[in-house]
Amino acid sequence: MTIIDELSRLTHVTPNEKALVSYILTNTQDVLNYSPKELADEAFVSIATVYRLLKKIDQPGFNEFKVALAQSLSTERVELTDVNIDYPIKELETTDSMINAMEKLYQKTLLETKKVSNASSLKEAVDLLLQAKQVDVYTAAGNLYFAQNFQFQLQEIGYVIQVPQEDYLQRLYAANSTSDHVALVISYGGRGQTTRAVVDLLVKNQTPIILITSTQSNPLTTFSDIKLYLSSVENHYNKLSSFSTRFSLLMVLDLLYAELFSREYDKNLEYKVANYQKMNDELK
């Protein structure tokens, strides 16, 4: 297990340690050039927090930690450096070559998503979903299909979840939302006017917000209660398609569903199987 894996799976951390872990996973390359004080300043924590974290991951010192971090990055890049996330295929490329290229793209996306994932944030997001009277998912364009798949997954285990599609309906759902709801907002960069209007309404109604976003700057992060990050190596517009971002989103949503299902495993499995049997007599 690499040091990045250890940080991603770390639990039982203080809020400051959690913020530090998030910063390291998001800015791994930069951290390699920092001193302990510089890292503390950039992550807005104390130097003591830095060293407490090192102790929790069995690192004897800061220099040793940076060596382990560099080795971790190197390990992840060995077989994936030749894949172009934005242009993974070339004109008139052979089918076999395209299959290999897409495999590498998805492998790289999986590693990048894993690197920016935080177990504590995922658990906190699921805590909110478990308490919610209703879950509302707000997104746009191609992401809607992934949101609808997540809706289908949760409906199969008895959750009330809505995915409004049109701009007006998104604003209406947000206006009707309450503190008993949980909003799952999917926005890579926070550029959409509708999404910003929706978030403003959610804040007014004191609805908890789980934001799924990139590691790049997003004005919506200020208003979110919990942030879950996507792989963010893809160009916003100069690309063949959003291969990487969409695969990363699918992984994040599936992780949410898996964690949610696991919390009440027997109950959810029994509910799901029982309903399938109700719908199909042949399964009884």
UniProtKB/TrEMBL annotation:
Q: A Gene Ontology biological process annotation?
A: carbohydrate derivative metabolic process
Gene Ontology MF term list: carbohydrate derivative binding; DNA binding; DNA-binding transcription factor activity
Residue ranges annotated for the SIS domain, each copy included: 125-266
Which UniProt keywords are given for this protein, alphabetically ordered?
A: DNA-binding, Transcription, Transcription regulation
Query: Can you give the residue ranges of the HTH rpiR-type domain?
Result: 1-76
CDD domains given in the database record: SIS_RpiR (cd05013)
This protein's record includes keyword Transcription regulation: yes
Query: Sorted alphabetically, which PANTHER family does this protein's record hold?
Result: GLUCOKINASE, MURR_RPIR FAMILY TRANSCRIPTIONAL REGULATOR
Report the protein name in the record. RpiR family transcriptional regulator
